[in-house]
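Q: Structure tokens for this one, please.
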Amino acid sequence: MLSHLALKDFAVVRATELEFGPGMTVISGETGAGKSLLVDALGFLSGLRADSGVVRHGSERAELSADFDLEGSPAARDWLRENELDEDGQCQLRRVIRADGGSRAWVNGRPVTLAQIAELAGLLVEIHGQHEHQSLLTRASQLALLDGHARNEAERGAVRAAAASWQGLLAESERLQAQGDVSDRIGWLEHQLAELEREDLDPAALEALDLAHRRQANAAGLIAACDDTWPASAARNHRRFPPAAADPGRPGPRRGTRTAPYRSRRTARRGRRADRGSPGHGRPHPG
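A: Here is the predicted structure, written as tokens:
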């Protein structure tokens, strides 16, 4: 049941609000008083096409809203629940029509399409105008009459369940597609799985792997310690084994090596000893 209707900057109306109680409400007045504007507002709230001509002159937009009591409308409650638009038993239809011809619609403060608001309004509003019966012109009413005549409630229930399942799968597909191409991640996961299957994962291997991991984790500390120790060690080696002056690029002698003069003197001594043992140097030669 319609309980409240509000219009702002709609046609010639600056702003007005009406409250409706239970029972029948009659609105009367002379021609041109604006009675038909209320019916037109309900029509636009029911999803009818609108243009900028319904916006009050000098205004940027027209705003329409209607509140409904769902006590006697179980079909509307079910529709709101199925579309996740229910709000503690409340039902408010709102529509804004801009001066540039665009429009937007809301149900319980949440944006909806015109098709959605028209579907919900068909469960709440039925307009009988002069020379027309709008309910019979709607596709939903015609289908309801056809289904009522066919008595196919069981089949409709099965189709409804299948359609809901299909909508759920479609939403899941769109969610997965929004994540982008996952083939690279699938390939990476397959590679990781193959690596794990090739590894020896017995307790001893895992312990060795953990030990290697700790060693690698301490590698940075070991490198830093070596960097701190190397300058002092290099300075000691430089003082002990200075490089040759004639060849600055040549490294100093290794530990245990002899210099060239020392080797020359030693070679000379060995030569003299050899000469003494040879014939003509005072030592008798065995004859």
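A few notes: The domain at 2-126 is CATH 3.40.50.300 (Rossmann fold). Residues 141 and 160 are 17 Å apart (CA to CA).
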